[in-house]
Amino acid sequence: MELGQGSSKNGAMQVEQVLFMNGGEGDNSYANNSAPSREATLKTKPLLHESLFDLYCNGFPDCIRFTDMGCSSGPNAFLPTLQVIEALDTICSRLKHKPPILHAFLNDLPGNDFNTVSKSLPSFYERLKTERGHDDFGSCFIAAAPGSFHGRLFPPCFLNLVYSSFCLHWLSRVPRELVSECGIPLLNKRDVCVAKTCSPSSVHKAYLDQFEIDFTSFLKFRSEELKTEGRMVLNFIGNDKYHTGVFELMGMVLNDMVYEGLIEVSKLESFHFPMYNPCVEEVRQVIEREGSFNIHQLETSHISWSVGYENNNKGLELNAHARAKNVADNIRAVSESLLANHFGSAIMDDLFHRFTIKISAHLEMGLGAYTVLFIYLIKK
After folding, report:
1. Among candidates 350, 292, 362, which has minimal Cα distance to 321?
2. 80 in Cβ contact with 163 (< 8 Å)
3. Which keywords are on file for this protein (predicted)?
4. Three-class secondary structure of residue 248 per DSSP
């Protein structure tokens, strides 16, 4: 079955089955190629701290239940949990209170590399012991919660805080308007996502409609799982209409490979990334229409595609190819599962080599940044 075909239920199931970040700790793993997500998490820290201060001071709970939705694997998997612990320690030290017990749930799709996450738990607890003075497991319990955040995951009125970083631009399915049930491309032929310069308005509407369905469901389910006045802190990739999306460049590379006879036309025309990058107003309208949350903060910032390479080479002359390779490796870590499932794994090395060259040309023009939405919501 092609990605996005079939009924709404089957289309969603297909994405759940084939979308996952590259596991393990190898060269192409998400663990070693996730700097933009890490940067977004670091930029979200002040909002997270503010939400925890508001939450804790509103009743001084003995236990806080927190979930990180879309945790993936590698070092980033525990970073939000560590930030929550640090914030609670700081807040409680200032108030001269004993920190509450933290029950953290790490959520991602079932295909996520939870084995690597589990193997990293002992070292994480050891880090808490040495750096934060947590001598036993009594102050922090961590559990995995596999499943799609587009559906219900927790009991009613169970959570205090929901967090998600760099995930909500992923849709539950490819918009049904793009490909028929028998796999015939209907719209956006040869464009793998919403392209700013050439996608017709009908394609933009199809993606926007699917985003509105998914984000509305996300808000509804989280409102049921959160306690009254529970907090939600989110960041995900948005759209400011000025920055070309990195996946648009991927579409150009795939088209080049079609022209050279390396990929069948029908294969490209039936492939679409299940993602949409909304603008601020599109997000605001969904939140206000769904009605379960008050918007405390909704703003944007930019993160360089090559932030990891730049941070590791501060003060040094940047190598254009190495910088582009860093970006391509990051995208490979998050998209290879989808691409290999549809086009086959045999072309992946060639595809990402070409992708590196395309990115390098883009970066040389002074371009290449993600627009990231940062959101703080309070349940009514």
Report:
1. 362
2. yes
3. Methyltransferase, Transferase
4. helix
Alpha helices in 96-113 (DSSP H): none
- pLDDT-based confidence at 158, cuts 50/70/90? very high
Is the predicted pLDDT of residue 186 greater than 60, yes or no?
no
Residue 259's alpha-carbon distances to 11, 115, 264, 268, 278, in angstroms, are 29, 41, 9, 11, 31
In 3-state terms, what secondary structure has residue 179? strand
Whole-number Å distance between alpha carbons of 124 and 5: 41
Q: Name the token pair of 243.
A: 């920055």
Q: Under a CB-based contact definition with an 8 Å cutoff, are residues 337 and 22 in contact?
A: yes
Q: What would the two tokens of residue 49 be?
A: 């701290």
> 172: closest CA among 319, 12, 283?
12
> What would the two tokens of residue 87 be?
């914030």
CA atoms within 13 A on the CB side of 362: 27
pLDDT band at 40 (very low <50, low <70, confident <90, very high): very high
CB neighbours of residue 228 within 10 Å: 10
In the block, tokens 């998914």 appear at 214
One-character DSSP codes across 29-80: -STTS-HHHHHHHHHHHHHHHHHHHHHHHTT--SEEEEEEET--SSGGGGHH
pTM: 0.91
- Amino acid, single-letter form, for residue 93: S
pLDDT at position 190 is: 64
- The one-letter amino acid at 147: G
Mean pLDDT of 358-363: 91
Q: Which two tokens stand for residue 177?
A: 């308007």
For residue 224, give both structure tokens. 């049921």
Q: Give 231: exposed, middle or buried? Use CB within 10 Å, 0-12, 13-18, 19+.
A: buried
Confidence of residue 6 (pLDDT cuts 50, 70, 90): very low
Tokens 């015939």 -> residue? 184
| 188 neighbors 196 (Cβ within 8 angstroms) | no
Q: Among candidates 336, 370, 364, which has minimal Cα distance to 250? A: 336
